[in-house]
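check this one:
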Amino acid sequence: MNKKSFLTALLLMIVGLQTVLPQEIKTLMTIYKSNGTVTTVDVDDVDSISFVQIHQDNNKVKLQLQPFVKDFQGKQSMQTSSRRIGIPSGYTAYNPLEAPEIGFFITEDSIIEEGNFIKSYDEWSTHVNIRNDRNYQIYGFMPQEGTIGATITPNLNYTNGCIMTLSGLRTITSTDVCIATGVKQACGSFSTMENLQQGAFGFTGNDVEEGNYIYMLFDHLYTSIDLQICMDEEYDALRTIKLNRVSLKSKQYSTCKATVTMTANDNGSDPVSSIEWNYNDGNCEETIFDCNIIDHDTPFILSTSLQSIGKSFVLPEAARNSNGLILRTVFDVYDKAGNLIRTNCASENVFSISGLITKVLQDHNYNIKLKVFPTYLYGLSDPDLDIPTITIFDIN
């Protein structure tokens, strides 16, 4: 290329850049949203309302939680709840070993923001922030993984309460699903719980450096069942039973959708006005005990004294159903010389909680006491001893 051609090409490039650059160069802005996502936008595409929103985000403060779960009514199981000074009467601090997520909805007028509280380093916190001097309501449920989906709609308005729908609830589960029944604000620190009671869901955002601290009370949606088992004394003198696996099965319902109507109040009464249960037909089975999963130093050998197998949670209608629950047990049978007679012997027993107590109640704990007997089909014989039956002999 000669010198004249090179200068001509260079001039054309400069003219082209003057035409292209103003269209290509953009001023970009990064927006950090309250749900944790990061979005990059062109400033020219951001309107004045968005600029106000971005400015207000700078005044947001963090929100932290201290949850308490209501004790189950009735006699408790063999396990005891930990207590410490300051916990509301009838409640236990919610501190699971494997902390699940707590789902919640924050409402401001008709605006809804959904989020999760996650426990880390002994603190429950969320990526959702709140603004100073704004009035909010907070409605929640736990654990997050206990449902397939959750939604809320206003009960007239969110100040008055909400209608919360929880779908995909298993009929029988190891997950204790609860709903929030009260909220109290404690700005600055978790220092005082005066007037912490059911029925109140409102709080006001405060511009404090330490963050906004919220107490929440939770109540149970399920009936709690604690299975306890022992051997008949005469049978124990002849056979040894090693428990391998226990499960509880509902043969009528699989899952359920619960629609909970809550009405706010300032007198401390239960805000749950009604619960509508919509059950789906089918089977649902939950393993309560499995020797291959649970780490036991010694085999689970039955004796004449009651031993706790484990706890399960059953939706009220399934627990009330007269023929709705099946106890499935797998065990090994030994003679008293220690010889294995039958391995993985399976037993199915249909039992009715409602046939033994007047009324099966939600948020109540029931101790189901089981006893193992020989079958006694044709008088006491070896087959009778080797295939035992399990029956309920008491419930409280």
